[in-house]
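Lab notebook page, bench 4
Experiment: in silico fold of construct C2
Operator: M.H.
Input chain length: 319 residues
Purpose: comparison with the prior construct
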Amino acid sequence: MLRSFLIYLSKAVWAQKVVMGWGLAWRSASRFVAGTRLEDALRVVRELNAKGINATLDHLGEHTTTPEEAQLATDDIFQTLDALGSDASLRGNVSIKLTQIGLGLDESLCAENLERILGRAKQNRTFIRIDIEDTPYTDKTIGLYNLMLGKGFSNVGMAVQSYLYRAEADLRKMLEDQTRIRLVKGAYKEPADKAYPRKADVDANFDLLSKMLVDAARSVNSKISTDGRVPPIPAIATHDEKRIAFARQYADKIGLPKEGLEFQMLFGIRRDLQEKLTQQGYPVRVYVPFGTHWYPYYMRRLAERPANIWFFISNYFRG
């Protein structure tokens, strides 16, 4: 019930206006968001890189309402890509949401913006991860990914959510093209006819999909690039140590080298686990969100973990 309410609030314009007007809201949100400027995010990337951790940058924004907003979001992504291109020492790539660049407005507009982004990423020698959003956009998102493959782009990957019934079929199809996949559990509220309602089923499906990804990586000897920008086929994105242990144990069992299995985590969450896995020789990538449109992202983080709500409340009353 609480999770559903928080996800509702993440999409509520009135709630966004209220929360972003609170002086202490940013103090709490900054635990999960690197900053409001690109410079803030690049500083975090350098700090992570110094610890041997790679990054993926996300200039926050979603569900733009006009073509002009979609163009501005695309321009922001260009700036991030150019920053990576101007400093080859940065071990990072970029994540985007397609509703940010116009998917909810006009699919052809979104396709045009996505093609331009992938072209700019190629010029800057980096990789684009297309985030997966809620199910009204799943088919369109996968369709645009396939369209870009057809145009010859190979510097692009996808995400798959283990709480969806369709996830296994989607993953099998994408692995035919050796798609580089970020595997997540899912952070949106979905109806029971589309997503597993029980956590145990979500976890079991996550392990199944992890196994499929590890098998795919082993079959083609997929590894992270030497510059840390292009991930291997499996990107296991979770803070759940049981899911991480399963992926590690299965990879060891079939002989997948450590550089063939990447673990991804969110900025501000489980820094200890990030550093532990890095020290053990696994590629680790931290999702580094930044920008002024932090509210929806922040509310989804609160929905995922009740402990995050108490962090917010304690900050609020601390003043």
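Observations: The chain has one domain: 34-293. The first strand starts at residue 54 and ends at 59.
Next step: discuss at group meeting.
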